[in-house]
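Key result, reporting period 2: structure in, sequence out.
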């Protein structure tokens, strides 16, 4: 794995110099091959689709480079300004369709280049493309898979982010993380984390759902260094992940027996009669589960082995949403006992304790990014727990006290981050964009007047941090917020601007 490690580390160092030393970047632009520039011209020809100012800028720079012009930061700003002012005569020779689109482009109230103020964010696709991009992505995956083997983490998955960055605005670093598969996402657990930056680092990362990004990383210079660091932290990371509450969905399907056991005897059950598994108390990993089911060569899910493994390994205190289909929640319960095998009925079981047996039906339009609230398999992770809790409190306000017993704060409007956002990236981008999901029965965003200021506390009445505290910390002055009123209104009705970051007030 040393070749893979060094390839990515060298790219990170090169891209860091392009980010921090614009003169190095502009010199490298002048060294690009004519064939590369021809490909870039085709890729960013705006005539065939929606007009995007940054892509038109990239096209114009590539055209100038191909003509032998020297590109500088001064020229870059000049081109930006002529795009902002829609100066058509400045772009003579551009395709007619592109000029027409520039002429009809509706200017925004904010700078159209606010996400691309740094030259590297504009020009990273000129370098990070083709085989270099493909090789990086493949190497990140190879490194992740080998680490799982070398660290003996059969029930861990991986997540990678390459030099495209979280917001597709280019980055001078990339990273990989290993996390427990039962968490459903790298955001929900402590991670074995490698950052390929100007100076690579490895150690323990922390998922954004757990709080502020405060990693415990050490400098590394090779794959073997990474292994050494990870082995020293392995027990700590496993122990920390074992203490985190998990959230699952459980759908007994159409079986009347399973339904009765869930509701009357407070049991979650699975049969798997065709495999004749018997008691699986001694099964310690998904790989062993696959072996027990007759598929020793597969470390993925085999005929639902992953679902059964999650059912068996769930910890007391984990939350389970009892579902019917992918959009109906019939109640919420807590795992309340260890795994047991019912020999008489041939069932794998877990004891549960109900929090509520009230129903909630999800409307796919409530969260535009999710057509279905739950996965279709019978027992699986759920990553929308706070949304479900907040919806239950909206419909059944008396449940707020019940949820508070289980450390669930559902009284605040829910701020949903943009896809795949980490705090480190929020710091890098000048303007971040946020989504505000507000319950109109508590706060009607649409009733605010233009220019009016709205404040909100980051702690509830008991002094506890709200579940979205990390987003209050990350949001800063100048960030833009999309205001959405949830059911029954279900509409975006405002654009807001953060006028002040996290602060204290005697009032």
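The corresponding designed sequence is given below.
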């Amino acid at each position: 794995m040393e070749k893979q490690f060094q390839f990515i580390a060298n790219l990170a160092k090169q891209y860091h110099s392009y980010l921090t030393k614009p003169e190095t970047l502009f010199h490298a632009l002048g060294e690009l091959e004519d064939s590369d520039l021809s490909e870039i011209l085709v890729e960013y020809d705006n005539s065939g689709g929606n007009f995007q100012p940054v892509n038109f800028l990239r096209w114009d720079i590539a055209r100038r480079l191909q003509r032998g012009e020297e590109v500088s930061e001064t020229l870059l700003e000049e081109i930006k300004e002529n795009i902002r002012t829609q100066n058509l005569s400045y772009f003579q020779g551009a395709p007619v369709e592109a000029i027409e689109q520039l002429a009809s482009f509706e200017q925004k109230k904010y700078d159209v280049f606010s996400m691309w103020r740094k030259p590297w964010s504009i020009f990273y696709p000129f370098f990070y493309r083709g085989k270099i991009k493909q090789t990086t992505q493949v190497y990140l995956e190879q490194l992740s898979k080998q680490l799982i083997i070398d660290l003996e983490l059969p029930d861990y998955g991986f997540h990678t982010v390459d030099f495209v960055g979280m917001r597709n605005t280019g980055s001078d670093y990339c990273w990989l993380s290993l996390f427990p598969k039962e968490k459903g996402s790298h955001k929900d657990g402590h991670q074995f984390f490698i950052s390929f930056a100007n100076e690579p680092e490895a150690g323990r990362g922390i998922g954004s759902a757990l709080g502020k990004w405060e990693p415990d990383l050490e400098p590394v210079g090779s794959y073997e260094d990474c292994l050494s660091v990870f082995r020293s932290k392995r027990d700590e990371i496993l122990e920390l992940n074992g203490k985190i509450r998990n959230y699952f969905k459980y759908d007994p399907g159409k079986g009347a027996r399973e339904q009765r056991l869930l509701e009357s005897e407070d049991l979650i059950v699975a049969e798997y009669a065709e495999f004749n598994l018997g008691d699986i108390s001694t099964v310690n990993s998904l790989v062993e589960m696959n072996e027990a089911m007759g598929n020793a060569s597969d470390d993925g899910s085999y005929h639902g082995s992953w679902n059964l493994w999650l059912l068996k390994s769930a910890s007391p205190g984990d939350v389970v949403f009892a579902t019917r289909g992918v959009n109906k929640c019939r109640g919420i319960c807590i795992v309340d006992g260890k795994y047991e095998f019912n020999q008489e009925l041939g069932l794998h079981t877990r004891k549960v304790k109900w929090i509520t047996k009230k129903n909630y039906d999800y409307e796919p339009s409530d969260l535009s990014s999710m057509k279905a609230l739950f996965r279709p398999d019978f027992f699986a992770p759920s990553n929308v727990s706070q949304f479900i809790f907040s919806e239950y409190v909206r419909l059944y306000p008396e449940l707020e006290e019940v949820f508070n017993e289980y450390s669930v704060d559902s009284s605040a409007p829910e701020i949903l981050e943009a896809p795949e956002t980490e705090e480190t990236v929020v710091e890098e981008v000048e303007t971040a964009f946020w989504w505000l999901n507000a319950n109109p029965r508590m706060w009607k965003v649409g009733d605010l007047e233009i220019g009016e200021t709205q404040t909100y506390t980051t702690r509830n009445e008991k002094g506890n941090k709200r579940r979205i505290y990390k987003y209050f910390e990350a949001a800063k002055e100048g960030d833009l917020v999309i205001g959405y009123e949830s059911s029954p209104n279900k509409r975006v009705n405002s654009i807001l601007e953060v006028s002040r970051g996290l602060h204290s007030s005697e009032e």
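The two ends are 57 Å apart (CA to CA). Residues 86 and 340 are 70 Å apart (CA to CA). This case is discussed further under Risks and Mitigation.
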